[in-house]
Amino acid sequence: MKKYVPIEEGDYYLTPEGYRCFTEQYHLKRGYCCESSCRHCPYGFNKNKLKKQ
After folding, report:
1. What is the pLDDT along the chain (53 residues), one digit of tens a residue?
2. DSSP output for 1-53
């Protein structure tokens, strides 16, 4: 079961389109990569690299 990580100030910002974009701070607190190619992924995951292999 995945742990619940409370969202605090600095964990995300709203994009011009109105989407919530999680920051590196949030991803590090969560402690794992969700493999969704997040914009601020500190784990270096990139779906495009997987497709080329």
Report:
1. 677 889 999 999 999 999 999 999 999 999 999 888 899 999 988 777 776 55
2. -PPP----TTSEEE-TTS-EEE-HHHHHHHTS--SS--TT-TT---HHHHHH-
